[in-house]
Amino acid sequence: MMNKKLLKRVLPLTIGLSSLFPTKSEAQQPLFNNSSFFSPIYSFPNLMNNSNLERDIQIKVDSNNAEEIYETPVLDQNELMKVAVVYPKSGLESKTGSMLNPIIYMPGYSAGASVYLDYANNLAKNGYFVLIPEINGDTIHFFSIDSANDNFIEFERGTLIDRLQKIKKEVQKVEGYESYNNMLKVADLVLIRGIGGEVQNQEVLDIIDKNLFKYRDDALDSTVQLAYEINQDKNSPLYGRIDTENIGLDGHSLGPHSIFSTLSEKNPPFWVDDVKAFISKGGISGFQSLDRVSKIGNNSSGKYPFVYFMLGEHDVENTVLQASWDRFQVLDVPAVYTLLNGAGHMVFTPFPLSFITDKYTSFGDRSITIQEDLSAQKTYMEISRTFFDAVLKNDKNAMKRIKRENFNGIKESYTLNFE
Description:
Number of helices: 12
Shape: globular
Largest sheet: 10 strands, mixed
Number of strands: 12
Distance between the termini: 40 Å
Strand content: 15-25%
Low-confidence stretches: 8-58, 147-156, 353-372
Radius of gyration: 20 Å
């Protein structure tokens, strides 16, 4: 049994979009000089000149929900991790109240748990127990649950370059990859071909996972186990009220990677059989081979988990969209692949920055307005609730909506292996 600690309630945050981007003095600090692959100063030059961004976004505390921060050890890592926990207050005082299904949400790269609190509150008020880990190890954090004013946090495990150097040394030992002896080839292997799902050598993909994402895999495992522990804690108002036999997993961007990785392991954690539903939102799924992904569900849980690929139609076509489509097609479990109308990669956050054109990035040549993305945000929340209701709560009406793709805001949708 791990020793967990309840720290404090989550406070409401007001986030100015301008804080997403470093000032000139900040950009000259080592943090930005050493992380040029992903630093916003390189990815989004002059973006703040767009007047549409001059506004604040409120992340509000829902008075009907309880929001707390736990601190828990990370399995296989000598460190502690904070986890935001959100659940409905009503009904807990009654011993005969309904059970709460746990939803573990894995944040995107560098995203603090606060980024997804609006979504967590939306699920909680509909009877879900939501846990969002504040993942240690990403190069930077946006909007930590523990430090609303410190949008950029120090390096935790070395720069991306440091990690790619380790990958280079190990990949060269794999048959057929001896020529990967320079950083440009390795960067292409990981950041282009790996993300895009082109690499099918699982030994190489395991090397990438170990050096880039192992801390995220451990964070997922630790967060799920925290749900079991809270359910067994006699001092918790949630004692015996969490339905750990029907777990939902969810995540955005890099978040789903660890879920795909864990669900497809040969010897997965004990709780994998309890996972019944999984939503990948703009998920990076390419770091698992098609053969390995096809084995998801080949355990004692039988037909589970149901898998939902939810993507914005304007996400990165030759990487995120294609890799997700390829993996959707090889699954033996029930699955859905949906494109949201007018949405981009960031629609699953409070910051719909997906209107950026190729003037600033190589993420596509179409411009998307904030208004379209905001509309798609309502759609993804409604679909997510309905999907979890259908699978975790065995709601037949909800399942009919999922099968019929009965939602406004869907451009295309496909189902697989549904009866």
